[in-house]
Amino acid sequence: MKQSIRLGISTCPNDTFAFHGLLTRAVDWRGLDFQIELLDVETLNERLLTGGFDVCKASFHAALLAATDVVVLPSGSALGFGVGPLLLASASGARPRHSGQLTLCPGRHTTASLLFDLFHPRTTRVEQVVFSEIMPRLSAGTAEFGVCIHEGRFTWEAQGLALVEDLGTRWETETACPLPLGGIVASRRLPDATVGVVQRVIHDSLMLALGDRPAALPTMRAHAQEFDDRVLMQHVDLYVNEWTIDLGPSGAMALDELSARAASLGLAAGRLQVFAG
């Protein structure tokens, strides 16, 4: 009997791109039986923290809270320079300064929310919402600030919003590390041999997409908030890079830095470890 793997994937274009081959069975599942769910990132984070998946894409903030229970796979991460969330404002010149202001964040366990906590602690009130609600609410004037992720990084100017700070640029300036946003984590309940097979399937899927990028577009369109192919591929260009193929030493160093900073706020159960096979 094939081993069943409960796999959670986000609907972000970089993930549907990377997992296109796995989702369509264009790559060999290597004897495993993947039971796949595609969900928004915060739902994945919550399910990770309740043990709902064997393998899933998760924000590294959530992974830190589950660090004693999971390992990070070498392939599939969103990590790099120039990839950070944006702190946006509904009005030009506004800055987060007091509790009378409201900041919208895309989920309590997202790395974007962690960065806001790290760089703007105890400033505004924070409300957690689905990421796709943030820019419309800023445009409507029902919040002063929002932490923007995903496709909105490329479309905020067209919606008349103002940039307060690129939180990724601030991370890079302070740490000299690429920013680790999210990655593929596997439960420590799985045998190492099984985790190794999962890693190889994910690597195969990623390499297939990189070898024929246009072939992944139908899968990406099926789950994206933004249906413009140019914007979808901008997303891939930004979030799929050398660290997505293999975290390597610099990726592991970035995870160590994030682990230490989250621990300083009491937001980490331990240090994130990369699966070594």
Structure overview:
This protein is an alpha/beta fold. It has two domains: 163 residues, D-Maltodextrin-Binding Protein, domain 2; 90 residues, D-Maltodextrin-Binding Protein, domain 2 (3-Layer(aba) Sandwich), CATH 3.40.190. The protein is 39% helix and 21% strand. It has twelve helices and eleven strands. Strands 1, 2, 3, 4, 5 and 11 form a six-stranded mixed β-sheet that branches. Strands 8-7-9-6-10 form a five-stranded mixed β-sheet, sandwiched between helices. Strand 7, helix 5 and strand 8 form a beta-alpha-beta unit.
CATH architecture of the largest domain: 3-Layer(aba) Sandwich
Main sheet attributes: strand count, strand direction, barrel closure = 6 strands, mixed
Distance between the termini: 23 Å
Order of helices and strands: EHHEHEHEEEEHEHEEHEHHHHH
Q: What is the count of distinct domains?
A: 2
Separate helix tally: 12
Question: What would the CATH topology of the largest domain be?
Answer: D-Maltodextrin-Binding Protein, domain 2
Pick out the low-confidence regions.
none
Radius of gyration: 18 Å
Overall average residue pLDDT = 93
Which structural category do the helix and sheet elements fall into? alpha/beta
In what range is the share of β-strand residues? Answer: 15-25%
